[in-house]
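Researcher: Go.
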Amino acid sequence: MSQEADNLLLATLSAGMVGIGDRSGAEDKENLLHAVRSDGVIIKPDTPLLPIDAMYTAGSRRPMIAAAHTDHGALRTGYVFSYGRGFEAVSVAFTPAQVGVPPDVYVYDARSRTARRLAASDAFTFGLAPNATAYFVVAPVSRAGIALLGDEGKFVPDGRKRVAALADEPDRLTATVMFAPQEQSPCGGSATPRNDPRSQRRPAPRMKSLLTSEPAVLKFRCRRARSRCTRAPARTPCVKRSFPCTAGEPTMKRSGWRSCAPTSIRRKRRARCAAGI
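Model: Structure:
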């Protein structure tokens, strides 16, 4: 049934078909749109959800941890689902390496909408109540220091039917994002350094797409020194399909683009945009 969010999540993570048994007119549209785009295309991982290797020796009463993933070249995003198999609250842990994501990562808790940066060998620990479930997105940190979490409104935020490609460069991460016609959706990323205390637990930044019938390209650039993200160089025209990422700082939306630059610079950029420079 589409009202059963966990069952719908597991069907999506199976990397196969997603079927529901609701009677006509009784479907839960909000839950269904976590699994599909507005045109009905399923956003799913490259691989089906499988128990991690440690589960085969953990014993039958330990909580289950299973993972799937999506690959974008050298960048792999993992999706981790866990559920309890006992009658007591327990503490559960996994490392990014165990779920197949070897570099530094951000582990995003899809339920609490918080993120934490970890090295591949660091353990991520969380509590699990009896009969409870947990779901995490493990996003790799690119060479530019940016982790793309993807579409926060989807079960598989980085799936190929949403994020078609990622180009990892030393100073930027470029994502090609697929939208259905007239679709609008929030995306998020993070660029906080690992030793920054803000990287431990905080909501991920957000960006909104444009209404478009074609694939849109979102460009992210991070300055390593100050760990702040900016838009393209000053002389680059302000185009409505180019958005910068944010580094956890409040941003303001102006003329279809976002900037974390000082107010005086924003005014100058808006003037250039209006003049077509």
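Model: The radius of gyration is 20 Å.
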